[in-house]
Amino acid sequence: MCGRDVGAPAIRAGNREVVTEDEFQTFLEPGMLVRHPTRPEWGIGQVQSAIAWRVTVTFPEQGKQMIDARHVTLIVLPERA
Questions:
Q1: Residues 56 and 65 sit within 8 Å (Cβ to Cβ)
Q2: pTM to 2 decimals?
């Protein structure tokens, strides 16, 4: 169950249904440590916020970045001991 009203029209792009901002949920939470999958040179980042598909992460070598979680799957790292 996706949470959209059954009577609500689907938003489509070509042959696929597009997830709206209200429906997109991320499991990322502030404080989690992550890596960008294609930018390892940015280092280990810390999630600052995650609202719908917008995830703000601070990386030591790149600073604060807004990541579009619809297009980038951040690599979650275990918490440091």
A1: yes
A2: 0.69
Three-state SS for the chain is CCCCCCCCCCCEECCEECCCCCCCCCCCCCCCEEECCCCHHHCCEEEEEEECCEEEEEECCCEEEEEECCCCCCEEECCCC
Residue 6 has pLDDT above 80, yes or no: no
Q: Hey, what are 21's tokens?
A: 């901002």
Pairing outcome for strands 54-59 and 45-51: antiparallel
Q: What is the pLDDT of residues 26-68, one digit of tens each?
A: 789 999 999 999 999 999 999 999 998 899 999 999 999 999 9
